[in-house]
């Protein structure tokens, strides 16, 4: 049966493979460029035009300089701090919210769910949100990056769907055994929704790590900015990273930008393979019911 | 009717559920509902030094100003255009990729392509736009290619007719692999016997793709499409802020970026809030509409 | 010696001023330059002030001695003078710490975040519950007036003669009438300590530059008219594939003077020969200037990245021989000359005059302004009166002789020495700084681009830059009618200010966009009439009326 490889098949395969190879190359090249550029000197980057296939004068100077750059290091730590503070809060609120929405039989459920869902459709908008952050005294503090986005209702729905996917008989029998909600949560629900929680961690983590917008509004002091905002200044506004570091720095100014990109992107890319096996399952659950 | 006794019983029985949802409600109150109160500055001429209490009221002036604004049509048009283009191109791209990958029998190759294409999802928007910036300069990579094929070098970032291609292509580049994961997962659940049966009936691979694979994806596609339609004004504001410039405002300036500039650059807080409110209202209309369609199509609806 | 030198500044100033402009500051980019502002004081209020002066004269003449004793700590938000980027905060910066030592006042400095737009940062600052004691930014007098009305900042009118005697003396010095006018609001009050510049050469810090070596090779004269410019550009393109390249923020007036226009690529108001306020961008001359630019753009004479690149990117292009003609700032010209000496021997940049309609005809508008800067330091109501007085005394320091020298040149002996003519010279410490002279100036001095009260020295600007740049600035300022057309900075009533926000701001944005569209050919100049009609529809007349009213009051003084 499988041997029937006719001309049509071969042509079709050819086309598919060519498209996919081109796509993979087009996707891969910019990343490769960044990686290579981070190991090259400024003159090599400039001389090569846009086309860099291999580091011309391989060196790790740019990484040394990047790790010695006070602003980059500090902002890197700020980003980490946001992540460490946010994730527990995110997961806690999301699971609580998901659990409530997945439970049945509460008289007030309809209203409370309404209150929760309404925030998906309507928000105060940029300025009112900003004034609110001011008002709560969070302005220019790391909490302004942690608290306003502490929970995403969308993610709570994913969590809710996952909980609903647990066979009700399990929960019911626990209740019959006299378990409280907290015990049910701890002993039955949490262990069973681990894959979903992994996915949620990834969602929240990626969004915090890559965020720049709130910090650009809520943070005033340069030393409190997360790394993405520094990169934005460097890559988008073309602010020089190394203005005053003398000639040796200038030779690697470009490479340093790329090194910084590599340093902040690689960790998060590396997390994914560990979560991958949960991921397909988790994302499905989320998608089945939006 | 809810009797007092019933409420008491309900609270007794579901005490912990209620207690557990309290932190969520506190959060929503502080960070979602409290700012909604701030929306009233849309009806004021707000001055931060006076605060909401002392700022003068102006009724609907700010809305009238927006409708008369020379940029009104432009931002509305651009918002819809960008949204429409992304539904037209960015949305089907992962479906195509999934279909193509599904045809690949060499598993290492399939995995490789998948891995390479999902990686950009993790690259921050700032970095993606920074790279786009670099590559589109008149001495950047893309121009090197254009020049190689005999074309004229030009700065692509200042050309109004290049903004949409740049926007859409970089979107596809970043998300196509990632968004295809869900379709591939759906494909994995299609019954293999169907293909077997089709082959016996002499169906070619394109026919199989058309009659088995695609219908298998349809529920997922329609659901995601409805979700997308419900968020029609949700264009990538952050991305546009990073990519646009004065030369491309004509095609790139959308409602949310206009809100941003009016509010933060011009400090016209009330005006900015009024435009934001307009944006929110349109968005709700579309959401409710999408929900209705979804229910009509027999889906469970978004809410 | 030093007295001699300082007399020039604190005594009679040679060049009289019409009004207003922005402070010459090499490091600010276009987006951060300030709105215009001015002053108009009724006769009545000026009398009040002079009475106060005589009342206070006894105390006023008593100089404040620095360092101040037992001064309270102050907090300050300022855009500049910034910290050299090798330091992580102000406590490491020699200038900021030296200032603390000299004045005896401990100051906690905060600045806008890296890469942040200054204007946005300032707007956000005002929404905060707790403000710093001093805010130093480009705040026009009308805005300051509003802040005072809202109870946010102090009205300093009654305090300045006594607690900022040197500033007061400067404002009232002969030749500084316009500076005094610019410091006062519509109701004749003074809300802050302004930054000034020593002479009108300071604001003319941007102008045309050209590759002299290429002109020589091609046997071409330095271009005068726009036709000459075009010939040179074509020749440069053919021979060297080099173009006209610039940074949009530094284009300000651009080539407007070549066709008697009054605006570059952005919105501009001016006073016409009949004393009427006009909108430069609605005039046929402006259209003509855009036609020229569009033509050059189509001919490929303009580097396309000019509209998006910054100074660093341009500098790279210049070094790579991609640019033959430019309009740039003294500090950049300095960089280019130094780069050429080090890495591209043979390349010779020189400054040239702004283009003219014909040789010998004065230029209509050039980059330039008045000696009164737009930057001002205001004191907020976070301060008690006592603290406010400390802050005012501290701000006065920039106007004392010691303060002037410190702000501009640093510490005598360490950073500069005076020669027998009383002219300052940098010491070797400055000249041999590993990060270059420009960074050394940021490390040790304050007025290089200061928002804090003080006077920017012309000598400082001349000796901090390459001699080519110092020569260029005289060429740029040569034979110009700039001051005839220059709008004095006008103090607005609250109502007029409202018109400016509601009408002038959108018009400004609209004009900025349209100008680029015309140059790039995204819009056709055949539709210029429609453009003007659109301006009218947006309420241009209301703006002109507001400006006219403010201007008439200004003249009525």
Describe the structure.
- By secondary structure, chain A is mainly alpha-helical.
- Chain A has a domain of 171 residues: MetI-like fold (Orthogonal Bundle).
- In chain A, 73% of the residues lie in helices and 0% in strands.
- In chain A, helix 8 packs antiparallel against helix 11.
- Chain B has a domain of 181 residues: Orthogonal Bundle (MetI-like fold), CATH 1.10.3720.10.
- In chain B, helix 4 packs across helix 16, helix 7 packs across helix 10 and helix 15 packs antiparallel against helix 16.
- Helix content of chain B is 74%, strand content 0%.
- Chain C has 2 domains: 274 residues, D-Maltodextrin-Binding Protein, domain 2, CATH 3.40.190; 254 residues, D-Maltodextrin-Binding Protein, domain 2, CATH 3.40.190.10.
- Helix content of chain C is 44%, strand content 11%.
- In chain C, strand 12 and strand 13 form a beta hairpin.
- Chains in contact: A-B, A-C, B-C.
- Chains A and B meet through helix 1, helix 4, helix 5, helix 6 and helix 10 of A and helix 1, helix 2, helix 6, helix 7 and helix 8 of B.
């Amino acid at each position: 049966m499988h041997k029937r490889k006719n001309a049509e098949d071969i042509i079709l395969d050819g086309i598919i493979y060519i498209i996919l190879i081109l796509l993979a190359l087009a996707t891969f090249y910019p990343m490769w460029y960044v990686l290579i550029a981070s190991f090259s000197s400024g003159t090599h980057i400039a001389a090569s035009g846009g086309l860099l296939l291999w580091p011309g004068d391989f060196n790790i100077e740019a990484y040394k300089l990047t790790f010695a750059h006070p602003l980059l290091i500090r902002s890197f730590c700020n980003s980490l701090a946001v992540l460490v503070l946010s994730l527990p809060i995110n997961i806690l609120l999301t699971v609580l919210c998901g659990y409530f929405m997945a439970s049945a039989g509460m008289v007030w459920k309809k209203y409370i769910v309404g209150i929760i869902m309404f925030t998906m459709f309507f928000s105060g908008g940029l300025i009112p949100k900003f004034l609110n952050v001011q008002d709560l005294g969070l302005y220019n503090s790391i909490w302004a990056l942690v608290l306003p986005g502490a929970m995403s209702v969308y993610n709570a729905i994913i969590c809710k769907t996952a909980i609903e996917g647990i066979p009700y008989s399990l929960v019911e029998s626990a209740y019959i055994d006299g378990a409280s909600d907290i015990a049910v949560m701890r002993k039955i629900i949490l262990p069973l929704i681990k894959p979903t929680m992994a996915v949620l961690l990834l969602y929240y983590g990626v969004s915090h790590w890559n965020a720049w917008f709130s910090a650009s509004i809520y943070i005033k002091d340069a030393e409190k900015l997360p790394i993405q905002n520094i990169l934005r200044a460097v890559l988008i506004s073309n602010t020089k990273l190394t203005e005053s570091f003398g000639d040796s720095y200038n030779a690697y100014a470009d490479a340093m930008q790329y090194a910084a990109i590599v340093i902040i992107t690689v960790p998060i890319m590396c997390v994914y393979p560990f979560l991958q096996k949960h991921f397909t399952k988790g994302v499905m659950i989320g998608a089945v019911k939006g | 009717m809810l009797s007092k006794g019933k409420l008491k019983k309900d609270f007794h029985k579901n005490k912990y559920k209620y207690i557990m949802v309290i932190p969520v409600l506190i959060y929503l109150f502080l960070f979602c509902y409290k700012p909604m109160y701030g929306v009233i500055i849309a009806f004021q001429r707000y001055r931060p030094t006076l605060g909401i209490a002392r700022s003068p009221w102006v009724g609907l002036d700010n809305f009238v100003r927006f409708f008369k604004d020379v940029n009104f049509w432009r931002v509305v048009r651009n918002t819809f255009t960008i949204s429409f283009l992304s539904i037209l191109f960015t949305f089907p791209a992962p479906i195509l990729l999934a279909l193509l990958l599904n045809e690949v029998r060499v598993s290492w190759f399939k995995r490789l392509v998948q891995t390479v294409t999902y990686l950009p999802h993790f690259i921050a928007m700032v970095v993606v736009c920074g790279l786009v910036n670099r590559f589109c300069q008149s001495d950047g990579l893309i121009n090197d290619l254009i020049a190689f094929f005999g074309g004229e070098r030009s700065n692509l970032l200042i050309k109004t007719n290049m903004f949409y291609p740049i926007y859409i292509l970089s979107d596809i580049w970043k998300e196509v692999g990632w968004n295809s994961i869900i379709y591939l997962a759906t494909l994995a659940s299609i019954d293999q016997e169907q293909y077997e049966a089709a082959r016996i009936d002499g169906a070619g691979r394109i026919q199989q793709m058309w009659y088995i694979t695609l219908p298998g994806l349809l529920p997922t596609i329609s659901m995601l499409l409805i979700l997308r339609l419900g968020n029609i004004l949700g264009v990538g504001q952050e991305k546009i802020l990073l990519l646009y410039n004065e030369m491309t405002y004509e095609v790139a300036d959308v409602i949310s970026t206009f809100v941003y500039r009016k509010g933060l650059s011009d400090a016209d807080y009330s005006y900015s809030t009024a435009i934001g409110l307009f944006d929110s209202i349109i968005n709700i209309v579309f959401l409710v509409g999408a929900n209705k369609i979804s229910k009509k199509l027999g889906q469970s609806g978004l809410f | 010696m030093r007295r001699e030198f300082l007399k020039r500044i604190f005594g009679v100033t040679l060049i009289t001023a019409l009004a207003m402009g922005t402070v010459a500051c090499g490091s600010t980019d276009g987006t951060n330059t300030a709105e215009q502002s001015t002053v108009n004081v009724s006769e009545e209020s000026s009398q009040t002030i002079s009475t106060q002066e005589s009342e206070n004269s006894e105390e006023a003449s008593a100089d404040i001695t620095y360092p101040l004793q037992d001064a309270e700590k102050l907090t300050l938000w300022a855009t500049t003078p910034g910290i050299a980027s090798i330091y992580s905060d102000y406590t490491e910066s020699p200038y900021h710490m030296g200032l603390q030592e000299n004045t005896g006042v401990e100051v906690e400095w905060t600045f806008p975040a890296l890469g942040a737009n200054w204007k946005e940062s300032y707007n956000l600052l005002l929404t905060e519950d707790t403000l710093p004691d001093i805010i130093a930014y480009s705040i026009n007098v009308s805005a300051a007036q509003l802040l005072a009305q809202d109870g946010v900042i102090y009205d300093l009118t009654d305090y300045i003669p006594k607690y900022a005697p040197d500033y007061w003396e400067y404002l009232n010095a002969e030749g500084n009438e316009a500076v005094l006018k610019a410091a006062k609001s519509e109701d004749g009050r003074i809300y802050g300590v302004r930054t000034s510049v020593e002479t009108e050469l300071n604001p003319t810090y941007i102008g045309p530059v050209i590759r002299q070596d290429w002109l020589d090779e091609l046997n071409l004269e330095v271009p005068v008219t726009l036709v000459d410019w075009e010939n040179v550009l074509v020749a440069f393109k053919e021979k060297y594939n080099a173009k006209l390249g610039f940074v949009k923020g530094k284009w300000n007036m651009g080539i407007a003077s070549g066709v008697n226009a009054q605006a570059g690529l952005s919105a501009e108001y001016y006073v016409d020969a009949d004393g009427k306020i006009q909108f430069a961008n609605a005039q046929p001359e402006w259209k003509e200037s855009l036609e020229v630019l569009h033509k050059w753009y189509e001919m490929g004479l303009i580097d396309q990245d000019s509209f998006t690149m910054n100074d660093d990117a341009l500098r790279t292009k210049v070094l790579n021989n991609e640019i033959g003609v430019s309009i740039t700032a003294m500090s950049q010209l300095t960089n280019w000359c130094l780069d050429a000496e080090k890495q591209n021997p043979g390349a010779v940049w020189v400054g040239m005059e702004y283009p003219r309609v014909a040789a010998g005809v004065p230029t209509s508008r050039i980059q330039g302004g008045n000696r009164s800067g737009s930057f001002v330091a205001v004191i907020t109501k976070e301060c008690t009166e006592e603290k406010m007085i400390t802050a005012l005394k501290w701000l006065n320091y920039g106007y004392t002789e010691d303060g002037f020298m410190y702000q501009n040149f640093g510490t005598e002996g360490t950073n500069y020495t005076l020669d027998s003519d009383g002219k300052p010279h940098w010491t070797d410490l400055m000249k041999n700084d590993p990060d270059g002279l420009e960074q050394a100036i940021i490390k040790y001095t304050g007025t290089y681009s200061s928002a804090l009260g003080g006077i920017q020295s012309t000598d400082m600007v001349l000796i901090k830059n390459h001699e080519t740049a110092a020569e260029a600035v005289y060429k740029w300022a040569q034979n110009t009618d700039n001051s005839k057309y220059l709008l004095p900075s006008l103090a607005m009533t609250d109502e007029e200010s409202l018109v400016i926000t509601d009408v002038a701001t959108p018009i400004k944005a609209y004009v900025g966009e349209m100008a680029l569209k015309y140059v790039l050919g995204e819009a056709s100049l055949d539709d210029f009439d429609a453009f003007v009609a659109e301006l009218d529809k947006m309420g241009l007349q209301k703006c002109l009326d507001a400006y006219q009213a403010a201007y008439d009051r200004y003249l009525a003084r």
